[in-house]
Amino acid sequence: MPLQNRVDPFGEIFRTPARGTMLGNRGGALHNDQREIVRPYKCPRWLICVLEFKGRRRTVMSPGLYTELFFLDEAVGLSAGHRPCAECRRARFNEFRAAWGKPLPAPEIDAELHRARIDRQGHKRTYQDRLAELPDGCFVTIDGSAYLVRGGELLLWTPDGYTRREPRSGGPALVTVLTPEITVRCLRNGYKPQMHESVAL
After folding, report:
1. Are 14 and 28 in contact (CB under 8 A)?
2. Does residue 20 fall inside a structural domain?
3. In this structure, are 65 and 90 located in the same domain?
4. What domain range includes position 133?
5. Domain end residue (candidates: 117, 142, 169)
6. I need a labelling partner for 57 at 20 to 30 A (CA). Which of 25, 69, 91, 155 fits?
7. Whether residues 40 and 138 fall in one domain
8. pLDDT digits (tens, 9 = 90+) for 124-174
């Protein structure tokens, strides 16, 4: 059975045999000694990392070590509430921080982002916005499914990649946005997330 270590645009951690193209974590160990997820996060530092960095090797979900999470791409990681890692993706973190609008250190960005992604009951925060005005790279939910906004299209997310395409103009005027509002601001300010190769198919 696949490990429960993939993250969807809603921020949920789930099982799938499909592989992700980016690694991430939520500040520590989310799993027990049986490699079962027992908490949704450890601290506000939720990162998006590269799969390989300086030849480091890890056994996934080792006891007591941080839980390796995987995303289809960076756009999914951002939607779930993560941000670029300042170590393995330093240049991308600097771009993200520049788009943030304030030259804050990483811990302060994490604190602001944490308040924007989760409410006091631990539920994902969403908000309403006009579909026509949303920037590329953010996610919306329509009829319970997650769609990536890209150009004039909405691309249906699946664990394996983006499949069905629909015209953005054919969607509802107002939509529920999954990507945290503060991250959408970064996208509006020019941050361009990496997207899975299926966006071009």
Report:
1. no
2. yes
3. yes
4. 127-180
5. 117
6. 91
7. no
8. 999 999 999 999 999 999 999 999 999 999 999 999 999 999 999 988 899
